[in-house]
Amino acid sequence: MKESIKNRIIEKARDLLFRSSEEDITMNLIAKELGITAPTLYHYFKGKDELIAAAQSLVTTEINAIVSLKFPPSIPAEMKILTTAGQIAEYFMKTDVPPFYLIEDPKDRPVLLKEFREKFAVMFDTYVKSKKGFKLTSQHAMYRYLALMAADILNCKETGSKLPEDFAEIIFGLVFNN
Length: 178
Fold this sequence. Notes:
It is built from eight helices and no strands. The protein is mainly alpha-helical and 178 residues long.
């Protein structure tokens, strides 16, 4: 029971973290949102910094779980990218975490999802090395892909529309066929 309360607290902090600035989040606000008292929060966390760190770690863990999907060696690099991109898009469509978090931290601090980006870059590197005459480096291709993905997810969220089923393929085409 205690673990589920702690998880609910972390999830609420995660949701608040990406809807407002870190400075605007207080232990009292989190407690109010959860319908509990602030002293209850301090039973699980020493303070706001520890709770925010746990929330940021949750996002990193969730996204890294997507990127760490195991594919059989016979699956082409392109399919790995498309499958992973589709899963990432679904994650950002169903959570309050803004997709621009894929590209840069909202306050231009060091990127919190460095591990995710490194794993995703490996997929792009494998694919880009197989493309003859492709002008972008794998790092530039990845950033372009993530930026386009983030822009489309934001647009769909703002308009209340769903992502097209071939979303990942469309973005892939924009990056690799230009």
